[in-house]
């Protein structure tokens, strides 16, 4: 036993020297084995009375020896005849002597407290908080400790020291070394990168400080109770200290310990266990299995929990795993020394004794252990004596003999957070702390048990317990707790959550009434914007510290002391005085509260803006000037939210912002807009004069309103509408006409504050929160009943009634009959013929309609202006009959309606008041159209056919397709048996392959193959080129060659068809197209197509002035005509069948006066068929008398062209026509040859003529050539002509042929090469805008201004502004023009272009403002005359008669003023 005692009593430091010798001895003599887990080596014959028995065996032997000795003594006493009395005395003595032995076997179960902690004690804990320089650890039994940053690992400490030393050296040695050392300093990881909250750690006590000690390393000014409590105990996580005592022989598979990353190698990490002569290795693959290291690398010095997986043969390298599940489930079964049992180790134990307050255990078969009641996991009585359990070591509280404290708590055993009962995984349930956050008030908690000197254990809900310290049971002092007192087990009390003991899984509670009623327990309980009262704690130069309730402090920064800057704040703020503040900022992470003592903010009744959801345009609130810039202010609301106030919204000139708005000044602002988190505010509009409603959504156009005159200006009156307080403008002329007075007389009689009623809203401007009103027009006498006599009871169906249109909706027009009765005029009730009544009556117009429906509940009428309704007794022709119910529809019925909505899957068409029909995408066109949505707009008139009617669900389907649905679905009954060899069928090209065409036979689901050899009778024809002439969807007539095993072979050779059949086919197609004209109803030419682009008037003589391409030149475009022998059907777009043509509209094939016939005709075979068709038509033309047309006739053969070219060799027009003539014949190489001849033949002085031919050749290669041939021709053309022009023309060619990506690439190359050209940038911008890429187009303007000369800037900006008007946002174009005229007010041409652009918007009031501004400038009478003339023309075109008269008056006034000035 003496040897055993020495082995146990030796300190770890005294063992270090002997350990290496013992280990080496074991390696040299592997045949020796250990007989006891307590001894590192076995001694067969121990010296000095030693023994090899275990402590348990020794105890058992001793107890048996005592019993035998007592028995012998009792027998001797009986022999001496001391009799029964002696025996009766001996029995109690034996019982007395046995009691001490029993008490020795039972170990007292105690709680861990700060007094029992000793330096060097090893503990198991859990991280609850991570500070910049320390970790806060939760320990068993409601204790807290901290780990300074220098106690993580020796490698990490060395890393920190090096970084600090190098930082100091860099400051003294200069900038060059600073750059080299900086990466090391910046590479130091934060503790939050190495650890996470909730992580379990093994630690050793390194120091214990006195209660209340300050200036502990790793802590600043701690603001929470946990940080203060953790200052008392300092822990260390360094592996050398935590793993001290672990033997080399213990490192077997399944052994768990903590290691530090020593270095990073090629294949993994080298780890430091803190054990001599052993290092760990963690492969990258194994490291990636850990969740913490999936995305980031392990830092040198970082700590990781590892499980031993394999030990090398020499015992020097140990391979480990970082898998959390393996680490949590691995348990220790045998050890070589008691010092190898580390805290946090999972061990197997035997229950030796059950107590009401815990268990006694036998750990690893040798050592004694205890589990207190808090860590049982269930009631102690549920555990049976002799049961084996797996428990986790918490700490060792005795080394001689060894004694351990363990836990059976489920969350500690499984190393997971404490969850609610019944939740097995963290992802499945919420944690206790999450469910009961700090500050939660609990109505009733049940006392489970008490400890007289410590506190109470209470139950919140089944499975959730809390701890109440004795000091928190009452506001009065409680020396001890009694089981019969007010806090006896089973009693119910209200409580409040004040904290959380993470390791024990207990809530920290308080039963104090003062704590329960306390307003704030932590910083996050304080709400931003609320008014608080506090006590001044102290005043420092950096701020004023205020103590709030519950021990929470706040700070008032110097710029928030008062509305003005205080020179002597100490005179105002005295320590201990009370102060009233408003919470400005709450920062829970930093546990900081900022307050404001500004009287303006504290007493402000305006709304508080503390989060993005509080920001709404129009809100008026208070803010504080945060920063002042040259052109704007930055103001701050609550919780660090900021807004921008432009200088124009501050009522202060740009240069005086610094003086007018010092930092810290409280200002009143109005929110103007919120754009992606950026807030714009106005100080000017927040004044009392602007104290009006900014939300005008309640005011609709056509509403009758009343208002009070607030301001009278020269031409307008400013009104405040009642009761909405919306600002409105009323023209003085309108009011004068209404009252029958002259404007000067009205100014004299009109007074501010006068009330005006019977006003009608005519215009709304939501951005400026302004409406324009006019006096209600006087009603004209009519035969209709007066509104005063109309009531809902007096109205009858069919009655004619009058009303005023107030506004338009998606369903129709809203009509106001009386002040209480309204009407709805549906778009389908406008006219008996939809083509003549497609537009709703104008707003404010008076209409006469017939009542066709009455809704008394809504007090609304359904109206109709159909002629058949208004005059039912007259004869009338109803083209589009009324559809009042879905039952009025019949399948197959042709019907017209208006597009109601354009959805992703098709259209919804309104065909009746309450009846809509759906048109799916596949039913819109006969063939595939990619961008189909651009062909339709809302309220567009369309025609279709009803395909299905679902009466129960009130749903209908329509189709715009010309082919009958039964044929499309193959329901005609045409099957394979109906087809015979030699039959001629119609079909559609379904697919195009290199070896031929797949043709869908019309009226069936069958398809056949036409091999490329069956396209032409000419064996020498280029069939590959002919194949490229076909497009999917082309209609053809085919000849069935044969049917073999359900495979149909077809032929398109012209020899299979007679000329009459081809002629009949053309006529049938023409008739078919005329008959089946469904889809969009063409109402005439599109006015927008004819809109001319207004060019700016600049005098620059460079070629950049040619902003538009001259269409009179031989520019090449693409049209769907005669591109191949197969002409596409009418519905196919131009991009699907391109060919060469002139931009001027001249057709290059056939007679000029037969163009329409040729466009509508189509041929169904290859090139030979095309030639036969031409010959056939030519014979028909010979029969006519064409003598008079000899000189105007288009050439029809190669000989004709050659004859004409002899007379005009320099005419690019003829050469291009000659090229185009070859295309229907598939003579692509011939066309190329003609182009080359033209380039050589045309005189070198005719540059434009040559350029035209080059462009035609580029078009040819784009359609029929390859990318290589096109690039080759392009390079030649760029060398032979103006390079910039060729670059731009190629981009245009790509654009027109729908090759958008190539066009964009070409424009980009052109801009790089010709960046000095304004024309290049503007054309690129126009291209992007036409594609709808608005943002990309707008980015080009600043890029262009960087490349262009300054003299071209104005012209470029003007052009981009025009493009915005035409394709983009007119408001943005207006902004650009405003910038131009503001910086160049004398550029009259810019003003003129600006006006023309505004005229396209139809806003006459905006134009009037522009003319007023420009005519206020000094100019010549000639220029003024041109402006007045322009103004007058615009007033006549889009204005009114009053406006025209006003222009004449202004012109006379200007002339008189100019003459007086001269």
What does this structure look like?
The structure is a single chain. The protein has 1462 residues and is α+β, with helices and mostly antiparallel strands. Helix content is 30%, strand content 25%. The strands form eleven sheets. The protein has a five-stranded antiparallel sheet with strand order 3-2-1-4-5. The protein has a five-stranded mixed β-barrel with strand order 6-7-8-10-9. Strand 45 (941-950) and strand 46 form a beta hairpin. Helix 18 (732-739) packs across helix 19 and helix 28 packs antiparallel against helix 29 (1247-1264). It starts with a helix and ends with a helix. The model is unreliable at 1-48, 80-104, 175-185, 423-428, 964-972, 1070-1076 and 1083-1191 (pLDDT under 50).
Strand content: 25-35%
Q: How are the strands ordered across the major sheet? A: 3-2-1-4-5
Report Rg. 49 Å
**pLDDT < 50 stretches:** 1-48, 80-104, 175-185, 423-428, 964-972, 1070-1076, 1083-1191
**What portion of residues is helical?**
25-40%
Give the CA-CA distance, first to last residue: 131 Å
Question: Globular, elongated, flat, extended or rod-shaped: what is the shape?
Answer: extended
Number of strands: 54
Please outline the major beta sheet: 5 strands, antiparallel
> Number of helical runs?
40
Round the mean pLDDT to the nearest integer and report it: 77
Structural class computed from helices and strand pairing: alpha+beta
